[in-house]
Amino acid sequence: MGSCLSGSPTEDFTRLRTEDSHDLESTPTRNNRRSSDSHRTGGHQQRRTAYHPTPGIQRTASQLSEDDQVKIAQRIGLIQHLPTGLYYNDSSKKTRECAICMLDFEVGDLMRFLPCLHAYHKDCIDDWLMRSFTCPSCMEPVDAALLSSFDG
Amino acid sequence: MAELPRRIIKETQRLMAEPVTGIQAVPDESNARYFKVVVAGPKDSPYEGGTFNLELFLPDDYPMAPPKVRFMTKIYHPNIDKLGRICLDILKDKWSPALQIRTVLLSIQALLSAPNPDDPLANDVAEQWKTNEAQAIKTAKEWTRIYAVNS
Fold first, then answer.
1. Which residues, 6+ apart, have CB-to-CB distance to B139 below 8 Å?
2. Could you report the per-residue pLDDT of A42-74, keeping only the tens digit for each?
3. Looking at beta carbons, which residues of chain B come within 8 Å of A100?
4. Which residue is closest to A56 within chain B, CA to CA?
5. CATH of the domain at B59
6. Is residue A31 situated within a structural domain?
7. ipTM (interface pTM)
8. How far apart are CA B88 and CA B92, in angstroms?
9. Quick one: which of A88, A27, A98 has its CA closest to B61?
10. Where is the active site (chain B) (predicted)?
11. Is residue B92, in this structure, part of any structural domain at all?
12. pTM, full prediction
């Protein structure tokens, strides 16, 4: 509570428009997902080079503190424990669209399954889990018990 | 120029096809990540009768990062400061990529109906809201009439 006041006063709400220029130099990210899925098992984060030790904080690898590096390494390890699989056609399934990229799931898409039984494209959810270890749909901690045992 | 992610295209199309009642969001002609938003003051709130202009920007890492939203129209509200910045958890630490422009705008609309002076952004307004709510609501209505009612 009251978290808004503790935020940095320089937080950039007053210059929304100036950020337009970032569009020009931003790198392609998820657009070419389908064509390169098979080669991107672990390379996603490396390619982006930006890490988010806590949500909203963006750091390059060289800017990370030792603690943050450990935290990120642990996070990568935890994510690898979550099951993956290929999407297959099953008429009983309700979810047809990835809640993150909003594309329809297609047979053969690489998926990751969370303990709460929500599923997403692997690349989509991995990108998020590196920022926040919660399910985007139900906000459940992905594995609070496991995570707290690592964090001490 | 980076290609516009399909999610943004899809969200924009859906917003146009099924707009939220009382909310209008139109992407800028020159930048599809920048939306001009108009929110009608909710019924039975001190903002009723007013139309509030906001700007909404989808950063490069949207939807991994929340949209940036700001009130352009002056408003007397404990969770909105004089620069138009909004104190809303889903725009900060409670953001989730499963949320959308639509849900963000609905939450802002709800914030107008239910100000939360216990989690203030504008301290003086929140103080007034807590110590003399009647006066605060009166001021909010006045500001609505002065700044948010089209002449």
1. B76, B128
2. 444 445 567 887 766 778 888 888 888 888 888
3. 7, 63, 97-98
4. B65
5. 3.10.110.10
6. no
7. 0.84
8. 7
9. A27
10. 87 (glycyl thioester intermediate)
11. yes
12. 0.78
